[in-house]
Write a structure and sequence with these properties.
About 55% of the residues lie in helices and about 10% in strands. It is of the alpha+beta class and about 180 residues long.
C-alpha cells in the first residue's frame, strides 16, 4: 500500500469501516498512491460542516481524484478499475456478473453481516434488530458458498472488483 502526502487520489474513511477498507484495498492492489484522511465516525466528524461539504450524505468512504468526488465504495472500485485497467470486467458478460455480485454484496453482506457486526461491536444488543439482520445474512451466505464451490472467483475466471467488494463482508465472519 502506498500512502502519499502528495498523491492525486484522496480517500476519506475510517479504519473500522468495511466500505472504506474496500476502496483502500483496491488502491493498494492497483498500486495507486493515495492520501488517507481519517474521519472520526465515533466523534461524529462525518456529520460536521467540513465533511458534509465533501459528502452531504455524511458517510465514508469518499474518493477524490482530479476534481471528481465518488461517494460510494462500489463506484470507487469501478472507477479505479477503469482508470488503472486492473480488476475490471472484460465485456458485457463479465460486466453483468460483476454487477450481480456487487448487488448481492449490498443486499446480503451489507444488510446482513455488516449490520450484525456493527450491532455486536458498537451497541448494547438490540436483539430484535439483530434477529432481523441475522435472517438476511443466513439467506445470503448459502448463495455465495454454493457459487464458490465451483468457482475460484465471483464474476470471472480471475479476480475482479466484485471479489474486492465481497472480501470485507466475508472476512468479517471471524471479526464479529
Amino acid at each position: 500500500m502506498t500512502i502519499s502526502d502528495d498523491a492525486e487520489f484522496i480517500l476519506y474513511g475510517h479504519v473500522r469501516s468495511g466500505n472504506s477498507y474496500k476502496t483502500a484495498l483496491m488502491l493498494a492492489l492497483t498500486e495507486t498512491p493515495y492520501q488517507f484522511r481519517s474521519v472520526d465516525l465515533m466523534a461524529n466528524e462525518n456529520l460536521g460542516a467540513d465533511f458534509l461539504r465533501i459528502n452531504p450524505l455524511g458517510k465514508v468512504p469518499v474518493l477524490k481524484h482530479e476534481g471528481l468526488i465518488i461517494r460510494q465504495s462500489a463506484d470507487s472500485l469501478r472507477y479505479l478499475a477503469e482508470v488503472t485497467g486492473k480488476f475490471g470486467p472484460q465485456g458485457w458478460q463479465e460486466e453483468a456478473r460483476v454487477g450481480e455480485w456487487v448487488g448481492y454484496c449490498v443486499d446480503f453482506l451489507t444488510f446482513g453481516l455488516s449490520r450484525l457486526r456493527f450491532i455486536n461491536l458498537f451497541t448494547d444488543g438490540m436483539p430484535e434488530v439483530f434477529s432481523y439482520f441475522k435472517k438476511t445474512a443466513a439467506r445470503g451466505l448459502p448463495i455465495i458458498e454454493a457459487h464458490l464451490q465451483d468457482h475460484e472467483w465471483l464474476a470471472a475466471g480471475r479476480p475482479t472488483y466484485a471479489d474486492i467488494v465481497a472480501y470485507p463482508g466475508m472476512n468479517m465472519l471471524t471479526d464479529a
